[in-house]
């Protein structure tokens, strides 16, 4: 079973800024169309801005003709409970032998394009294969939401207009270029398009015509989709020909207070503490890495190399990011991780109770949503240190009771 392909769009830190968005922001005397209010008034405001930015009225009318709000988009936006699952359950939910086998077949089928990606950007094919698998199940499920309507609906909704509103104008520019059909282009509910699910602004900035047909077609051309995804990862900071994640083992009784994405140490320091690769040697010895314990010191353990940080530019869910990075290592030949025997986690309601108790102690955990996000993990780790518990950032019933 796949993840909804557009979950990452909502969790992205920001949409990439395009030349078009900058032009709109700088247009003299141009009023910014507000979110909310009457929908038709909102559309008229968008049209006025597009015309003021230099688009012919016929192009603007053609793009917005038939536009409509999509209540299914808003329902999908508010129903993202999949990320409440812990890493072991979540990764087993997404990764199957069938998905691995198909990934290996895709690697052979598109060996030429992956070879070009590795030569041009230094990004291992396994990384792109993992994104391709999780976003659209290798292109099989790209979403059936009308992209223009989804973007307009989310921009009109006042939760994140700054993220989605610029994407409307990026889609308009793709339409002007002949690479977007307003009433026919479909994708994920958050406006992403194609096999690796890219927003219109990202397509404008990083789209590559890898198959040479004169168009960037991410829905039907695997070559275009994979090369475009690679170019985007490179732009986000991927370090060529370097690893991203490696499973490790911990010595008994190790101080785990320095675990977590926020702390980096040289490989020599981790080695001196007794951290060791589960198989072979360290993937990279002359760099810093972070120790990740997604379900505490009794569960799986990984060292995350600098490239792992790039995953958070694609998606901000720790569980999703770690699963995607781990799946890429599996596609590259790594063993199934050692699940260990982690302490039982908290239910959604218990997590909310924990978050409220952490807030009462002055910790910023963000929204009380029952999701173990970065702020909640950090607060848990601080309280574990204060209470003399293993500070692995994994919340347990014992911690909940202690608070």
Automatic annotation (TrEMBL):
Signal peptide location: 1-33
Any GO BP annotation: peptidoglycan catabolic process
Gene Ontology molecular functions: peptidoglycan lytic transglycosylase activity
The keyword Lyase is annotated on this UniProt entry: yes
The entry's keywords: Lyase, Signal
Matches recorded under Gene3D superfamilies: 1.10.530.10, Bacterial muramidase (1.10.8.350), PGBD-like superfamily/PGBD (1.10.101.10)
Domain of life the protein comes from: Bacteria
UniProt keyword annotation of Zinc-finger present: no
InterPro entries xref list: Lysozyme-like_dom_sf, MltB-like, MltB_2, Peptidoglycan-bd-like, PGBD-like_sf, PGBDSf, SLT_2
Enzyme nomenclature, EC number: 4.2.2.-
Domain Transglycosylase SLT stretches: 39-328
Pfam families membership: PG_binding_1, SLT_2
Residues covered by the Peptidoglycan binding-like domain: 347-403
Protein name: Membrane-bound lytic murein transglycosylase B
Name of the coding gene: mltB_3
């Amino acid at each position: 079973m796949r993840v909804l392909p557009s979950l990452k769009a909502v969790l992205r830190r920001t949409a990439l800024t395009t030349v078009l968005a900058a032009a709109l922001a700088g247009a003299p005397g141009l009023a910014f169309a507000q979110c909310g209010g009457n929908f038709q008034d909102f559309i008229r405001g968008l049209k006025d801005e597009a015309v003021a930015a230099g688009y012919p009225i016929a192009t603007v009318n053609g793009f917005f003709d038939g536009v409509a709000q999509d209540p299914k988009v808003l329902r999908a936006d508010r129903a993202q409970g999949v990320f409440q699952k812990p890493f072991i359950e979540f990764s087993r939910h997404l990764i199957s032998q069938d998905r691995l086998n198909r990934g290996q077949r895709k690697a052979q089928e598109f060996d030429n394009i992956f070879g070009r990606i590795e030569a041009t950007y230094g990004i291992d094919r396994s990384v792109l294969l993992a994104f391709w698998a999780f976003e659209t199940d290798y292109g099989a499920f790209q979403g059936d939401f009308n992209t223009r309507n989804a973007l307009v609906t989310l921009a009109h909704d006042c939760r994140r207009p700054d993220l989605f509103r610029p994407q409307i104008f990026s889609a308009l520019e793709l339409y002007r270029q002949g690479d977007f059909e307003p009433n026919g282009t479909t994708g994920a509910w958050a406006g992403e398009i194609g096999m690796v699910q890219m927003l219109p602004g990202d397509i404008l900035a990083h789209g590559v015509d890898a198959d040479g047909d004169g168009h960037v077609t991410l829905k039907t051309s695997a070559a275009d989709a994979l090369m475009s995804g690679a170019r985007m990862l490179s732009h986000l900071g991927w370090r060529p020909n370097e690893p991203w994640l490696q499973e490790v083992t911990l010595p008994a009784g190790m101080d785990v207070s320095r675990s977590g994405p926020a702390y980096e140490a040289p490989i020599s320091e981790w080695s001196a503490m007794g951290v060791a690769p589960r198989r072979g040697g360290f993937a990279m010895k002359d760099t810093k890495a972070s120790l990740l314990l997604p379900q505490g010191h009794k569960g799986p353990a990984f060292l995350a190399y600098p490239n792992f940080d790039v995953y958070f530019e694609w998606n901000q869910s720790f569980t999703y990011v770690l699963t995607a990075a781990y799946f890429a290592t599996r596609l590259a030949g790594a063993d199934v991780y050692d699940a260990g025997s982690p302490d039982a986690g908290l239910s959604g309601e218990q997590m909310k109770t924990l978050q409220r108790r952490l807030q009462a102690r002055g910790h910023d955990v963000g929204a009380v949503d029952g999701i173990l996000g970065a702020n909640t993990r950090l607060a848990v780790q601080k309280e574990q240190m204060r209470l003399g518990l293993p500070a692995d950032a994994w919340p347990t019933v014992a911690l909940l009771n202690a608070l």
